[in-house]
Amino acid sequence: MTPSTAFLAIALVLLITMAAGLVRVIIGPSPADRMMAAQLLGTSGIAVLLLLAATLGIPALIDVGLIFALLAAVSVAAFTRRRIGQDRS
Amino acid sequence: MPTLLLLFDLVLLATLIVLALATVLSPEPRRAVMLFIAFGLWLALVWARLRAPDIALAEAAIGAGMGGALMLAAARRAAHRDEAAGGDGDKRA
Amino acid sequence: MDQPTFGLILNLISTLLACGGALFFIAGTVGLLRLPDLYSRLHALTKADNLGLGLIMLAVLPQAPDLFFALKMLLLWVLVMIAGATGAHLIAKRAVRGDGEDIL
Any stretches that span the bilayer, and where are they (chain A) (predicted)? Predict the structure, then answer.
């Protein structure tokens, strides 16, 4: 027996959690709030991918999780980037 | 287990459609870009659920990652140009 | 201990760890939705990032087909921790400077 049913149920819970976090992306008062929500979305997505990899038996989904981690880093860096002439500090 | 999988698919698809509508109907460019990044992420999850890891990889890297970063820069530049042209300040909510 | 009992205990531990990870993710999302200002939301976010994903990763680890994939999962977790810490620092610094609202 493998705990794949339990894993699938937990993946479903995480998916609903992600859908709730989307509310913050939509209403978030400042852009930083939206960025943070997108980051949490990426991390929950990695968790769902890991659980799906174990449930569906596709180990290659771990690579997709690695790309998700890269995506979060790249988008946060693009968000906080400043122009050269603007730097005050 | 099949019932659970069906429920999983239903939640996945319903949220995907709501997210796509919110992205397209968003009036503010920067919010639309954020929502587009989230949409690309969600679409990658859908491809993963369809047992297509390669396409999920490409979608996450190109569609959400590179496209999102480029669009963030473009939206920022557009906002700057708007301000420099003496545009209205109330456009940025 | 015989083989089936060991497998059963391993699966039980896996399920419990995954439940703990899901709990952390739920706490992080509730914090993101309910906390009043940006810094406290950032604080809730990083907990969910590091600990929640770590517990989920530990739960999936025994189900990995071979050592290579287990190592890849560990690498994934370390990468997420580095990216999360750096990202949180960047966002907080930008908000402290007070220019997070006007340009982008």
Answer: 6-27, 39-58, 64-80
